[in-house]
Specification:
Layout: H1 2-11, E1 32-36, E2 39-42, H2 43-55, H3 64-82, H4 92-110, H5 113-120, H6 124-149, H7 156-164, E3 173-174, E4 177-185, H8 191-209, H9 214-221, H10 225-228, E5 237-238, H11 244-250, E6 262-263, E7 268-277, E8 280-288, H12 294-312, H13 318-325, E9 348-349, H14 355-361, E10 373-376, E11 382-393, E12 396-397, H15 400-429, E13 433-435
Antiparallel strand pairs: 1-2, 1-13, 3-12, 4-9, 4-11, 5-8, 6-7, 7-8, 10-11
Helix pairs in contact: 2-3, 3-6, 4-6, 7-15
Length: about 450
C-alpha cells in the first residue's frame, strides 16, 4: 500500500509548473524535493515561499531554502494529524484576515499593489487565490501545534532549578524596565450624537428586514476593520470573549434574527446570529462609533488636568483618584497599575510600551505624574490619559528575586519546544519521509529528516 502511494506521488515529478515566481521570471521544470507520508513537497513550494518572505522583508541567518524545506516537512506532519482532528477548524474569516496581513506586508515592503503585481508577475486576485490553500494549511498546523503544547506549564520549583543550572554565560540580560499606573477620562457622547447613531443602525435593521443583505451593509458601513471586510462576520466565540452587553444580546438571538441596537464599550451595534455550537456562537455585526464633540474633548482634558493637579498637591491620593475617576475598568480598582496582556507582568521594556505612553514616561522621574495627553485606549476609543511612573530598573543579569516572570517565560518556552520536538520525532519515526539528494547538505535542526 505504502509503495503504491509513494509511486503515485512520484508521478507528480513530471508536472510542468510553467513560469515560476521569481524576479528573473525564469521558466523552470518543477520537481518533488521531499515526500512526507503520501504528501509531496515541490521545488515550487520552496521557491514561492522564499519569494513571499523576501516580499515581506523576512530574512534568515542560515540557508533560506533549507530552512523553508524543514518548515514544510514539519507542516506536512502536523497537517496529517490536524486533518484527523474534528475540533481543528479554519474559517474563511481567519483566512481572509491572514491574507490581508500578508498583502499589507507585501505592499509595505514593495511599494504599492501595482508593484506587488509586477514583482509576482500576476494580478492580486490570482496571487490571493494561489495563497488561500497554503494559508489554510498553515492555520491548521498552527492550531495543531498549539494543541500539542497547550497543557504545558511551569512550576516555581522547575523555574528555580532551571535558573540554578544555567551556566553563567547563558544567564540572560534583562533590559531596563519600568512599571507605571494610568488614569483615563473618556469624553462624553452628546445626546444628539447618541440618538443619530442609534437611528442609523435602526434604519440598517429595517433595510435588512425588508430584503437588503446584512453582510453587504456591514462591508459598506461597519467601523470594525477586523470584520467589516468579511461582511461583519466573526469567528465562533464564547460569552467570556465578548463585551458583556454585546454577549447578553447576541446569546439571546435565534439564527438569522437581528438584535436591537446594543451599546458596548466599543460603540453601537446591531447583531445577526448565524449559528450556535454548544457554548459558542457565530454572528455578524455592524459597528458604528459616535463622533466626539470637540467641546467634550476639551472638557475631558480639563477634567483630567484638574485631577492630576489635585494628586500633585496631595489633595487626593493617586489610588483614590483612579478608583473614583478613571474610565479604565481594567486598572481603576488596583491603583491604575498597568499589566501586559501578553504575560500579566507589570514590568515593561520601553520597546513594549504603547508609543503614546513611551513618549511621555521615558522622561519622567519615579513618583511623578504626567501632564494629560490624548491617546487611543484598548477599546479603540479616544481618551485623555495621565500616567504615574512607579518604578524603573537598570539593565542587569537576570535573578530570581526581580526577574522571576521573565525566567519563567524563558523556561516555559524551552519546555514547550522540547515537548514539541519529541512529538515531531515520534511522528517522524512512524512516517515515510524522503528528502531529495539535492538537499543532502542542509543543516536541519532535526537530523532525523534524513533517513
Amino acid at each position: 500500500m505504502l509503495k503504491n502511494v509513494i509511486k503515485s506521488a512520484l508521478v507528480l515529478a513530471t508536472i510542468i509548473m510553467g513560469q515560476m515566481l521569481s524576479n528573473a521570471q525564469d521558466k523552470v521544470i518543477d520537481q518533488i524535493v521531499a515526500v512526507v507520508g503520501s504528501n509531496p513537497i515541490l521545488k515550487s513550494d520552496i521557491e514561492t515561499q522564499a519569494i513571499q518572505m523576501q516580499a515581506q522583508g523576512v530574512t534568515t541567518q542560515g540557508d533560506q531554502k533549507c530552512e523553508i524545506l524543514e518548515q514544510l516537512l514539519e507542516q506536512k506532519l502536523l497537517l496529517a494529524e490536524a486533518e484527523l482532528d474534528t475540533l481543528i477548524i479554519v474559517t474563511d474569516n481567519q483566512i481572509n484576515q491572514q491574507m490581508d496581513r500578508r498583502m499589507n506586508y507585501f505592499v509595505e515592503n514593495i511599494g504599492s499593489e501595482k508593484e506587488v503585481e509586477k514583482y509576482f508577475n500576476k494580478p492580486i486576485v490570482q496571487l490571493k487565490a494561489e495563497m488561500s490553500e497554503t494559508i489554510k494549511e498553515q492555520l491548521k498546523t498552527e492550531q495543531m501545534q498549539g494543541k500539542i503544547i497547550e497543557k504545558v506549564s511551569a512550576t516555581p520549583s522547575e523555574v528555580r532549578q532551571f535558573f540554578r543550572q544555567l551556566p553563567s554565560k547563558e544567564i540572560p540580560e534583562i533590559g531596563s524596565q519600568l512599571e507605571y499606573a494610568q488614569l483615563t477620562i473618556l469624553p462624553a457622547i452628546t445626546e444628539k450624537e447618541d440618538l443619530e447613531v442609534k437611528a442609523k443602525l435602526r434604519d440598517f435593521k429595517k433595510r435588512v428586514e425588508n430584503g437588503d443583505n446584512f453582510a453587504t451593509l456591514a462591508i459598506m458601513y461597519s467601523e470594525d476593520p477586523g470584520s467589516a471586510r468579511n461582511g461583519g462576520e466573526m469567528d465562533y466565540v464564547g460569552r467570556a470573549m465578548l463585551d458583556q452587553a454585546f454577549a447578553t444580546e447576541a446569546f439571546s438571538l435565534k439564527p438569522n434574527q437581528i438584535s436591537k441596537v446594543v451599546k458596548s464599550e466599543y460603540g453601537y451595534h446591531i447583531i445577526q446570529l448565524i449559528d450556535r455550537k454548544g457554548e459558542k456562537i457565530k454572528c455578524r455585526h455592524i459597528l458604528l462609533k459616535a463622533k466626539l464633540d470637540p467641546k467634550e474633548l476639551e472638557l475631558a482634558k480639563n477634567r483630567i488636568d484638574s485631577i492630576a493637579d489635585f494628586v500633585r498637591k496631595g489633595k487626593i491620593s493617586w489610588e483614590q483618584a483612579t478608583y473614583l475617576y478613571s474610565s479604565d475598568k481594567n486598572t481603576r480598582n488596583n491603583g491604575g497599575l498597568v499589566t501586559s496582556q501578553r504575560n500579566g507582568s507589570s514590568k515593561f521594556e520601553v520597546a513594549d510600551l504603547d508609543p503614546d505612553v513611551s513618549k511621555v514616561i521615558t522622561t519622567m522621574n519615579i513618583g511623578e505624574t504626567s501632564r494629560p495627553f490624548p491617546t487611543i485606549d484598548d477599546k479603540q476609543r479616544q481618551v485623555y490619559k495621565i500616567v504615574k511612573l512607579l518604578n524603573k530598573t537598570k539593565a542587569h543579569p537576570a535573578n530570581l528575586q526581580e526577574d522571576y516572570q521573565s525566567l519563567s517565560e524563558m523556561f516555559l518556552a524551552k519546555k514547550k519546544e522540547d515537548i514539541y520536538r519529541k512529538w515531531i520525532a515520534k511522528q517522524q519515526a512512524k512516517t515515510y519521509i524522503h528528502v531529495d539528494d539535492s538537499y543532502a547538505n542542509c543543516n536541519f535542526k532535526l537530523k532525523s529528516w534524513k533517513k
